[in-house]
Amino acid sequence: MLTHNLRIFLEVANRQSITETANARYISQPAVSKAIQSLEKELSLKLFHRDKKSGMIPTEAGKKILLLARQMEDLENRIYQTAFRENNFIGGKLRIASVPVTTTVLLSKVLRQYREAYPYVTVEIKEGSPLVVRKMVEEHAVDFAVTYAPFGNLDAEILIRDEMVGILPPDSDTEIMEIGKETEHMILCRAGMETVMERLPSEQRIDFSRSLLVQNAETVVRMVDEGNGVGLISKFTLSSMSHHLRICQIQPTLDTQIGLLAYDLADLTPVAQEFARMMRELCAEMM
């Protein structure tokens, strides 16, 4: 089982802050610092760099310890889940990574049903861009993810097939948007940019250096609506928003997918298996 100091170490690494860790665990900042110092002394290793801008950043040795500690956390969770099942109920902790749109459109629909069915399970959702989410899976920070391709070398199961589309002001008569000719007026969110750069054929690389990159898809829609340019967005993401913009096809076409992502989908914990099952059922109904 994880020791107290290892739990503090995991929390500090996840939050990159002693202050936030202390607040989250309802203990003092000196208590958090003492736990980290005790662990460093026990291991004879420096585990963190203290950066004024980024906070507590794991050293190279700290990153290796962090990966092992997360694996220990996963094993501990599995032990408790096994014990719960032997007592005829499902309990434990479920950690899911997700891009914001899949949290809003998919996870939100499953979460209420899941909590009602399994009240003894604590659910933790972590959000980020597709690349950040994939990294969470690679580093064992979550049980599985619901995210956009690319999936890398991880185990993936496609839930929804999607495509990128163009969005224009309502009075536009454009039928097909040629991406390469619109980059100076193009507006994309970070997740959309990652998808575009991954899916574009190597012989059709496009320079987006003069395009406007924003944080989220809602901002793309608002910026186009205000006449700031044309947008490039996933059709699935756009379907979750209310708008009056014109939707058009793009050239070249860019298909993508939303899927479940894990190290091994066949080896998910019982609580993760149940959530994944509900996700599959929801997506099958939406197709």
Q: How much strand content do the residues show?
A: 25-35%
Return Rg in Å: 22 Å
First and last CA, distance:
43 Å
CATH class of the domain at 161-256: Alpha Beta
| Overall mean confidence score, pLDDT | 89
Which spans have pLDDT < 50 for at least 5 consecutive residues? none
Specify the biggest β-sheet: 10 strands, mixed
Order of helices and strands: HHHEEHEHEHEEEEHEHEHEEH
- Number of separate helices: 10
The CATH topology annotation of the domain at 161-256 reads as D-Maltodextrin-Binding Protein, domain 2
Structural class by helix and strand composition: alpha/beta
Shape: globular
Helix fraction by DSSP (H/I, runs of at least 4): 40-55%
CATH architecture of the domain at 161-256: 3-Layer(aba) Sandwich
**Relevant CATH superfamily of the domain at 161-256:** Periplasmic binding protein-like II
Topology:
Layout: H1 4-15, H2 18-25, H3 29-43, E1 48-51, E2 55-58, H4 60-86, E3 91-98, H5 100-117, E4 120-127, H6 130-138, E5 144-148, E6 155-168, E7 176-178, E8 186-189, H7 190-199, E9 212-214, H8 217-225, E10 230-234, H9 235-239, E11 246-251, E12 255-262, H10 270-286
Parallel strand pairs: 3-4, 3-5, 7-11, 8-9, 8-10
Antiparallel strand pairs: 1-2, 5-12, 6-10, 6-11, 6-12
Helix pairs in contact: 1-3, 2-3, 5-10
Domain HTH lysR-type: 1-59
GO biological process, one term: positive regulation of gene expression
Family: Belongs to the LysR transcriptional regulatory family.
